[in-house]
Amino acid sequence: MTDPNRSRAGRCPAVHHSGRSFALCALVLCVGSVSANAASSTLSRFVRESVAANAAVLAAEQALRAHRAREAGAEHSYDNPELSVETEEIGAFGRKDDPQERRYVVGVTQQLDLFGKRRARAGTAKAHRLAAEAELEAARAAAAGELLNALARYQTAEAQVALVVQHERTMGDFEMLAARRRAAGDISGMDAGVATLALAETRMWRAEVEADRAAARRAVQSVTFSDEGAWPTLDFDPPPLENAAAEAVAALPAVRAARRRADAANAAVQAEHRARLPDPVVGAGIGRESGVGVVELSVSVPLPVLNRNAYGVPAAEADEAALRGEADDVAHRARAQFLASAERYDIARRAWSEWQEGGAAVLDAREALARQSWKAGELTPAEYLVHVEAVVGLRVRSLDLRRTVWEAWFEWLLASGRLEQWLDGGDAT
Description:
Blueprint: H1 4-7, H2 18-29, H3 41-52, H4 55-75, E1 82-90, E2 101-111, H5 117-184, H6 189-221, H7 253-275, E3 281-289, E4 292-300, H8 312-359, H9 363-375, H10 381-416, H11 419-423
Antiparallel strand pairs: 1-2, 2-3, 3-4
Helix pairs in contact: 2-5, 3-5, 4-5, 5-6, 5-7, 5-10, 7-8, 8-10, 9-10
């Protein structure tokens, strides 16, 4: 869906009373004095509480719990011994005068793990557990980033609604003044109709921005269970990037998770190699035969004749190669994302700084001058709207630019792996 506020940037009629205009401009255009080097405690607490209750994060926590249980099971996956009881009647079906003997033996057999199959299983399970830990971190970071971006969108939509509601009131005053001038014969009916059309257009615009605010509200609600009144305000100055090093992407949760999955595949290859080696089974037993004590010792080795596990190793090696390729791709994309996010943030921040230093300061003066000229009869309604269209268009675009700066900052925090540090109150630059 096309953002109606952006499409209106080139044609957005507006007029404000001087006192209201100053207050509204301070509300929607000024970003507070809090530095973005560290998140506020309120924002940090809100994000952490929301992330902790996020469904995707809870699912990742349960997946990690399952992998920890599997790792513990693999570390204790010893082969159980087998108990056997044998009895034998010698001469049971012979003639009555044939001697009969009874033989019985109680024994235990145990398969020996001579080639480290248990260690291989434990290594595979450990690698999967490490991958699950990284995936949990990635899920938390993704949920936090989604929430922060949703807050940026909602706060921007809220400011735009406030701007348009104020503008609608002023357009109502504009229409009434134009009607009085039309009745006095100062302007033509066509000129008075300009004010009526401007008010109608503003009412349609208000419906559009309110719909955008509703969509932005739903986006926040999809990530958090907190009431709207508890949502924090984004209020910080975007800092310059100083210590941006692309090597940091190697520590990103998504990159580490991909590497761990490949390590798990490598451990599976080692396990398949060991599975091809048959382990012997040793046994020992005691009993009696013909009144004489008996001790039995046995050793058996499976013969890899019918099943040599010839296809398990190449299949596992192919899986490892595929996951290594995926890990390399994830790392490459993460590096590209890091560089692109840094560039995007730098461009957006520079544009925002230039706007605050130059463009924002002249809006009120230009609007006041246009209003005075209109009241003095020096401008027709159409000429007056040309001037205020430029003012409102810049204000709307400045709100979009501020949101772009916020989103670029959050994107860079995620791409650099410094979101957690920023939420903890540390310097993320």
